[in-house]
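In response to a reviewer's request, we include the raw inputs and outputs for one of the modeled complexes. The two entities were modeled together in a single run.
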Amino acid sequence: MELHSFFNSSTSYRVRIALELKGVSFDYVPVNIRTGEHRKEAYVEGVNPSAAVPALTDGEFSLGQSLAIVDWLDTRYPEPQLIPAEPEQRARVLEVSQLISSDMHSVNNLRVLKYLDTVLNVTPEQKSEWYKHWVAEGMSGVERLLSKYGRLPWCFGEQPTLADCCLVPQIANALRMGCNLDAYPTSMAVYRHAISHPAFDAAQPGLQPDFVSP
Amino acid sequence: MELHSFFNSSTSYRVRIALELKGVSFDYVPVNIRTGEHRKEAYVEGVNPSAAVPALTDGEFSLGQSLAIVDWLDTRYPEPQLIPAEPEQRARVLEVSQLISSDMHSVNNLRVLKYLDTVLNVTPEQKSEWYKHWVAEGMSGVERLLSKYGRLPWCFGEQPTLADCCLVPQIANALRMGCNLDAYPTSMAVYRHAISHPAFDAAQPGLQPDFVSP
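The model returned the following structure tokens for the whole complex.
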């Protein structure tokens, strides 16, 4: 099994955490999205028609989109299950995961920031304000959801779930970009708990083979 | 059961289609996101901590995020199942759904377009180019995925799935915004098939109680 990944991509980071939690061994295939490797024909035709990372390949099978990949891994390698089967718990996990994936991450990913830079010619200050605005919007929602429905030490109790796989990369990115996250103490408590876990540690950008320091 | 919805919200539209396909009766609770009703304290505290539409409420239970809602509906009202159980088919359905939800819709939704207008002061032409750029990026991916893995008349065969619930509102929005979609014939064939279906018809923005013409 191969994971097509970029060290600094938070969607790749989600899947790396899931693979590490499940103890599934995989080959790491670096795809440099900064230089556009994800748009090359061989990759789009042969690996991921979405032209994005991450993508998981396993023989003839190939799959893109991080949340779909974790769902597939749950079917194939059910221990530990990252999307709970119990309907209400499952709903809560998917709700937080989709909030992070759709409402927060996608507005702040590399391709959007590049568009702001190169097409709209925004200033560095405007780009930073944009980033912080969407982090604040999204984290406020996450914090309210976790305050209402969450249960520490993980987002939803004694075991990590897909919600933690999404939250940790998002918070790591926000910290790297200089966001102040003091207003989200529940989310930060989960983050601090998670990063000391061996699977979350092994998945961090700085430990990937394609890591380059900023 | 109540659906908190805005007629023109494509994420609300996804859930309306799912409810109609399953024949689940619900009360329609309009939430005007243009005037910020989704940010009012009573709504955020009592209905949806994400401060967004759609939200589904059922007695004490309340859930936001369209894909999480459809997953929950599948558990509660399994017929017809919109997220297939068979692992590979399931993976394909979730992949297309997440591509639309995360990579395409969220970059072009109302709050992002408002930010472009009011904070970055872009011109109407720049805003239109932004919208069309992300539609083209996303639809290219969807079209490649459907060409490779899809099976008409629906995205994935003889029955509609979550992928169709996501694709149809996205295409309807893109057409409304004047995008040219000639380059995506497979996606458009699914769209034309879908809109004649009674459930997809009943869910369209123009037939909702809060509809106002542009």
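As requested, we also summarize the result in words. The domain at 87-199 of chain B is CATH 1.20.1050.10 (Glutathione S-transferase Yfyf (Class Pi); Chain A, domain 2). Chain B has a mean pLDDT of 97.
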